[in-house]
Amino acid sequence: MSDLHRARPNKFRxxxxxxxxxxxxxxxxxxxxxxxxxxxxxxxxxxxxxNCMAKQGRSVLLLEQHYILGGLAQWFKRSGGHIFxxxxxxxxxxxxxxxxxxxxxxxxxNIHQVKSVRFINPQFDLDTTFTREDFTRILVENFQVxxxxxxxxxxHLAAMNYYDRDTRTTRDLFQEFFPGRTDVWRLxxxxxxxxxxxxxxxxxxxxxxVFSNFMSKGVYIYHGGTDDMINKMEKIxxxxxxxxATKALVQKINxxxxxxxxxxxxxxxxxxxxxxxxxxxxxxxxxxxxxxxxKPEFIAELDAVRPSSSSSQVxxxxxxxxxxxxxxxxxxxxxxxTYDATALTDFKVSSMTFSVYYPEMRPEKNRYALVASINHLxxxxxxxxxxxxxxxKDEMIDLAVETLERHVPGIxxxxxxxxxxxxxxxxxxxxxxxxxxxxxxxxxxxxxxxLPQQIGGLFHAGSVGIIMxxxxxxxNYAVIVSNQAxxxxxxVKKS
Length: 495
Ligand SMILES: Cc1cc2nc3c(=O)[nH]c(=O)nc-3n(C[C@H](O)[C@H](O)[C@H](O)COP(=O)(O)OP(=O)(O)OC[C@H]3O[C@@H](n4cnc5c(N)ncnc54)[C@H](O)[C@@H]3O)c2cc1C
What we know:
This protein is an alpha/beta fold. The protein has 18 helices and 18 strands.
């Protein structure tokens, strides 16, 4: 496949040291000396927090180490008119309400339901609208599950509550409702595992919440592309008076007498009463605030927080003027005989999901693009030398094109551009330190929520725990955290 145009390898090793070495000099930072709130990082949580705080009338500084806003809600352009979205954006309907309430009606109006989610694997080949009605139909007609059983399952999930302290795993839940039906388990679980790396051995409650949100009213995307969404958000932030600095790497959260006093960014101190960190929970505590400022029990709890697994992508751009028939918006493909969360992360890829971007995504461009997504672990990629890394990326690209060719015969000759990203890319671009695409697993939420009890004025907003992960959960959690930060600021003013 050497005739196909692929990305050239990077000439330098892309890691945090590279970022540190390339920060702007402090005198280039055009910021005030003091703010009510400093938000570290401009992922969807950072952006939403900054906007909420500014709307409350607070003075806000948003600092982003990258040259562009958005964090993982990101896109990139390549010559030949190619444009790719990074975090594939399939999310629940709730995103519409969140955008309307905390951003603007214009943004909310760009949310549209995808038409078809398809599964192709040795156990079944079907497509669905991902709604409760359609899932019920499929479970009854294709899988011959008793109708009342399906209704009971949905009702049970809807009644589950985070505060019930339910100790069951997702496996227990499936065994209770669909004993031994691993084909049903695959249908119900594989999309969630693809999305955030969760397994059958994680708490049933986390599955219940994700499932109830996601697989009841369908999957939605943002028409116009991530670039349009983030650019509009940036405009709103500026209108609301937020000061924004990019290429602004926060090196330290300054703390005195158990309270935040400011941050050190690109070597300069900027004061504030409150910090909302959108850097991952681990780097926020260990790298920026410093573990010495926390109780040892809290650090022990942090150390037990597991990252969600990460993913690799292959970006596939069709040449100008080329097209493919409609094959579904999200296509889950697997050659693995049964559902197996570990096999999904295997280096010898047997499963990948294609997000297909038809011209209606960005009508003015009239182009087709596909992104293959594969669950992976950072450690499998960091252990490679630069040469091995490039080879593994090339092999992943070849496999993605081969897989696609099986489902869309003739597509190979239509491809104009190919590029791959891995958990290492995620780590480099967001400094997440764990290369994770969905923050942490379930237990990260507790540590994140308890952070302000350890340090006055220090809050964390971001993807923590699978109920809180993804675009919607991240934005909604940022709203909750912003309300708490606002209350804290009120108390500071009073005292
Ligand atoms: C490949 C992929 C596919 C995905 N698909 C979907 C999907 O289909 N649907 C969905 O809902 N979600 C999806 N997600 C997940 C979703 O994108 C994330 O959960 C969400 O965007 C995370 O937002 P966040 O605000 O928590 O953090 P991030 O987006 O990671 O943002 C953190 C920001 O903080 C900045 N930062 C970190 N440290 C510092 C520092 N010291 N100083 C200054 N800035 C700093 C980073 O540069 C970054 O901009 C996907 C993710 C990936 C990677």
